[in-house]
Amino acid sequence: MTESTQPLVDAFKEKAALVAAQVSEAADLKEALHRVVQICEEKAPCELLAPEPGTKSGPLSENKLPTRAQRIIAAPGLSAEDFAVLEKACEAKGFLCIRGGLRNYLAGFDVGLAWADFAVAASGTCAVPTTDEEVRLATMICESSVLLLRKSAIKPDLASIAQRLREMQTTDNPEYTTFITGPSRTADIERVLAIGVHGPLELHVILLEG
After folding, report:
1. Cα dist. 2→7, 94, 115, 183, 209 in Å?
2. Helix, strand, or coil here: 98?
3. Residue 108, phi then psi, degrees to nearest 5
4. Lesser CB count within 10 Å: N end or C end of the chain?
5. Which residues, 6+ apart, have CB-to-CB distance to 151 below 8 Å?
């Protein structure tokens, strides 16, 4: 990391913390993937929000909902080589690690992992390429969303990425990009803040060099 990058990293961490995102750093991708497994292990069992035929359920949660007996990490955006590393770490814990078929788990799963293309330091926002439906689902229907982000991909503000966004949307095959700022939240009902109504309960961002 260069000296010019550090202020952006610090600013991103500060703003991300203000919106309840949890930011950590990893020496390399292998360490980051093991951290993903740790996040899955430390969270409460995933609540099943809808019937899912053939799925073994566990004890009721505090919300009186059935829980998923086996923990699941979905990582559709990883390369085959990186997925193999994550899958091996999951097997050691008895977790299921999946790359596709996420529509079979719409009742919810534990952790969704994706790469962020870039981030905005001014708001603690991550931009995730979600043209692939599997990646979209991984970031939306998990209880804990984990994003991998290169420090060099942190930009100062929205103006600094405007041209890139224009280019992405003016090609013959426009791309989907999802902007994620903290965990899902709303205050639509009587101005009472609720977390996780429209998406993940938690957002973790793991920063990597490069």
Report:
1. 10, 40, 22, 29, 10
2. strand
3. 115, 150
4. C
5. 1, 5, 8, 9, 207, 208, 209, 210
Q: Where are the beta strands (DSSP E) in 7-106?
A: 22-25, 57-60, 66-68, 72-74, 96-98
Q: Which residue ranges in the chain fall short of pLDDT 50?
A: none
Contacts of 42 (CB under 8 A, 6+ apart): none
Residue that the structure tokens 């991708």 belong to: 29
pLDDT, tens digit (0-9, with 9 covering 90-100), for 62-106:
999 999 999 999 999 999 999 999 999 999 999 999 999 999 999
187, exposed or middle or buried, with CB in 10 Å at 0-12, 13-18, 19+?
exposed
CATH classification at residue 81: 3.40.50.10420
How many distinct structural domains can be found in the chain? Answer: 1
Side chain identity at residue 70, one-letter code: Q
Strand partners, 75: none
Q: What pLDDT shows up at residue 175?
A: 83
Contact 41, 66 (CB under 8 A): no
At 31, the amino acid letter reads E
DSSP state string for 68-95:
ESS-EEE-TTS-HHHHHHHHHHHHHHT-
Phi, psi of 30, deg, nearest 5 = -60, -45
Q: Which pLDDT does position 41 carry in this prediction? A: 98
Q: Domain span at residue 167?
A: 5-208
Closest listed residue to residue 209, CA positions, set 155, 151, 154, 126: 151
Nearest CA to 40 among 68, 71, 62, 74?
71
